[in-house]
């Protein structure tokens, strides 16, 4: 079984225009993923860290990554394949509420 990092992108406008029953089912889906061991959280305010040449850390507020939708949250899930991981996150709020979820295999 492998680990996958998921990044959910979405905004409140997409969330609000999604049927309330669909949103409720998505939050129940998240609860089941958490109960199965997924680590999930809402994204806070990021900082960028640079330490070029190990000459001293430079920390800058704000994201480095840019996208059409803001980063809404992250999760670490376990699955047998990237296809299974994609199926697991297909019912999450970002996936169903006009957002998108990226699935990244965590290679160790």
TrEMBL record:
Residues 17-104 form the YCII-related domain. InterPro entries: Dimeric_a/b-barrel, YCII. It holds the Pfam family YCII. Belongs to the YciI family. This is YCII-related domain-containing protein. The lineage of its organism: Bacteria, Bacillati, Actinomycetota, Actinomycetes, Pseudonocardiales.
């Amino acid at each position: 079984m492998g680990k996958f990092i998921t990044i959910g992108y979405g905004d409140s406008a997409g969330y609000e225009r999604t049927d309330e029953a669909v949103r409720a089912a998505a939050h129940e889906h998240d609860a089941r993923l958490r109960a199965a061991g997924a680590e999930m959280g809402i994204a806070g305010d990021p900082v960028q860290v640079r330490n070029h040449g190990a000459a001293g850390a430079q920390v800058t507020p704000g994201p480095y990554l840019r996208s059409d939708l803001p980063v809404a949250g992250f999760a670490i899930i376990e699955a047998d394949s990237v296809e299974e991981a994609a199926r697991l996150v297909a019912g999450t709020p970002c996936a169903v509420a006009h957002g998108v979820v990226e699935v990244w295999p965590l290679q160790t």
